[in-house]
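Write out this protein's structure.
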Amino acid sequence: MNEANKSLTDGNMTDAIVVLLVDDQPMVAEAIRRMLENEDAIIFHYCSDPKKAVDMAVEVQPTTILQDLVMPDIDGMTLVRIYRNHPMLKNTPVIVLSSKEEPKDKSEAFSNGASDYLVKLPDQIELVARIEAHSRSFVAQQQRDQAFQELHELQKKLEESNIELERLSAIDGLTGIPNRRSFDEYITKEWSRAVREETCLALLLIDIDFFKKYNDGYGHQGGDDCLRKVATALAETMRRSSDMVARYGGEEFGVILPNTDIDGAMVIAEELRLAVEQLALKHEFSDVGGIVSISLGAAGIPPRCGENSASLIALADGALYEAKEEGRNRCCRAKQDVGDQCG
């Protein structure tokens, strides 16, 4: 890669002007070369074979192409059209060089995609000025396109990062299940939906039995491992994608069950209790057996029973308290009036 092309790639395009002349007449090429030889900012390339013009243009990456119109095998107009249809050359300025000065020839050249038209041999000052003007404009456009592309990629990365941050902010770092924030948002959403659709919403609140004794006896690392295993067991027991298991706080978990009545909630509660029991996690400090167990409180109410989800949470919390009072390792349903029950 020559220095001009390297500077183009690196983005330092201010002084990089690369000219490619495509002309089958060596005498014309020599005349053009001499016109440009004292221009330090211009690097000159010459292609005498029109069949090799496109490949050479791709190789040298010109900022301006000087294109003869009348050539053997491939005429200049055809080459201009080829440039305009080539992904790497479609925006490269093309100055047509022709011995004809007829308006119709100029019109045809521009309609085929030429950027400019000069009758050869042009005046040296005019040729240099046209090359510099077209090259500067082309390079500036490349820089703008590159900047827009980089900005687009940066925005895409930021969007991906924001999505990941949003996901992480909704997940409990220890257990890998939704956190309390997610629980609060989801129960509010599902309560509103239940109001609109006049369906029932059920909730389970869960507490690991004698977890403080477990933590004290096996250490915080042991307690963390226990929380992770219980959370996994609860999450894997869920059958519907609409059901959410979340860490409610400490050793407590919440299970939101849309479109579920109290009887359905009790069935799921028992499945969850058994799932944790079947883990057979040793808990020699428990007062209800030698393994880790859970207590659950279940509530299911129609939307008319309260203005928001707080009433449902209060009922499930009361039922959980009752399960603990009755000896733990069990599920109790909330005490509700008949008219306030879904099932």
